Amino acid sequence: MSKVLCVGMSTRDHVVFVDRYPGANERVVAVESKSSFGGPASTAAVTLARLGIPVAISCVIGDDEDGAAILQMFSREGIDTQHVVIDKTVRTATGTIVVSKSEQTRAIMVQPHSVRPSKPANLADYEWIHVDQFGMQTIKDWGVTRGAGAKLSIDIGYETPGLNSADYDLYAPSENITTDVSTATKDKNIVVVSKGGEGSIYSDGVDSGIASAISTEIVSTLGAGDVFHGALVATQVWNKPIAEAVAIANAVAGLSCRALDGQSGIPTKAELDAYLAGARS
Questions:
Q1: Measured between alpha carbons, how far is 26 from 24 in angstroms, rounded to an integer?
Q2: Which of 7, 170, 195, 235 has a beta carbon 3.0–4.6 Å from 58's, enabling a disulfide?
Q3: Distance from C-alpha of 30 to C-alpha of 19, rounded to nearest angstrom
């Protein structure tokens, strides 16, 4: 039985790696390109699966080649797809991402859809429900609220109407929204803000602090935030104390940066354990 349900957008991505971004009306030669997969909730689900956590995904894809590729990826990763909706009226969401080597940044262009999955009948089976920006409204439509069943976690990158930190047991906004983790005391939840290479700040209302990012060779930071949030949910399933939980999530996110795309570099549980053992020695 899956312990975590991830709810949100799943995309088929095309990632292009360049030495630098082109100027206006300029052409640059791509160093590398590849097809991959994205979406914050989808990438979190892959992370959870790689770390050995039974996980299901709820999303909507089209009845098309990109949708079929996403389903095959979920199957390879061992992710439960019983809540994936194939809708013939939509095209599967796609993304085009340009990663610049010199700027260590990326430009992301997404073509989403607006169709949301229906509420699963077996929500009581899950210990945690993890959502992204798209999934936030989805579970509101389902009538899912904090304290009424599964614990709720959110990975949210931008201020969104209806966003309330108190609605989540694990509130993980980007620094675009806030760097104030003191709301954990008021809301009686866990608040974690990832600041990329600067590490992460956290509070659970009792313990608070800063966890440093790991030192590692970076190919691309694409998807690292989504990986971080998936790993953070994994640590909650493992019942790790907050300081250790954030340190583990930083390690998983850092290791994921060894690949161009946002998913292929995500470590397995064995790889994570080997890294942590080496870091302690």
A1: 5
A2: 7
A3: 8
CA geometry: angle at 171 spanning 265 and 208, to 5°? 95
Distance CA 190, CA 231 (A): 14
Could you give the domains of the chain? 4-21+30-280 (3.40.1190.20)
Residues 138, 7 contacting (CB under 8 angstroms):
yes
Residue pLDDT tens, the chain, 281 long: 569 999 999 999 998 888 888 888 888 888 888 889 999 999 999 999 999 999 999 999 999 999 999 999 999 999 999 999 999 999 999 988 888 877 777 788 888 888 999 999 999 999 999 999 999 999 999 999 999 999 999 999 888 899 999 999 999 999 889 889 999 999 999 999 988 778 899 999 999 999 988 888 788 888 889 999 999 999 999 999 999 999 999 999 999 988 888 899 999 999 999 999 887 76
Q: Give the C-alpha separation, 173 to 225, whole Å.
A: 10
